[in-house]
Structure prediction request, 261 residues.
Amino acid sequence: MRFDWVLPVYVVTFFVFMLAPIVAVVAVSFNSAAFISFPFEGFSFRWYHRIIEYTPFITSLVTSIKLAVLATASASLFAIPAALALARSRSVAASAISALLLAPLAVPAIVLGFALLYFLGSLHFGVSFLALWISHTVLLIPFVFRTVLAVYRGISPQYAEAAAILGANSWRVFRYVTLPLIKPGIFSGALFSLLISFDNVPVSFFFGSANSTTLPIVMLSYMENQFDPSIAAISAVQMAIAFVALFAVQRLFGLKGIVGA
Prediction:
């Protein structure tokens, strides 16, 4: 008995399972009814207009985008030099530092947020955008560090040695040899970091204030009192921003570059 049909059915089922919730959220965002219902009453942009009317959605969206960009940039500033310094070291200290930089991946995010709240509170940072920025930087460092480390370990050291033999100093070796080769790792790590920061709830929950609340926290607060399709509309906007980021990276580096990282 042949089972050639099993794999295609499995693949189709998998994609339906993955895409159905996304399609449902986008479809609900265009429902004209005052609450989430099925079947839909009609097509309307009413709930997208509601996003503009409800000021916390817009201000928190701006805060989330600004936070994601700043935290990704600062995480990259720490993670890229660390990855280049530790990638080819065989020492026990290098292994210990690498494990320390990757530790936020192993710690539950809510525990990490709680610990950072106490630590930053003891340093008098308080609940502010600066504290939120620092906490997201700590959260994102492992993602950039891991991708750059993996890419750099796969590059032969002979490229840098050849450039040095031809007279290039350390900066020119990094600028014209190392940086172009590790660029896919940097951008794939930065992309993951942007998306993770943009959607983060556990860490952001501890540092939100009237002036520094992120979009996911505002959405949770909104749903405590109301459950209209505007939540689906702002979720669709959030997904659109993520798709635009993925499309931009695809155009710049292609899927091969990302997968290779």
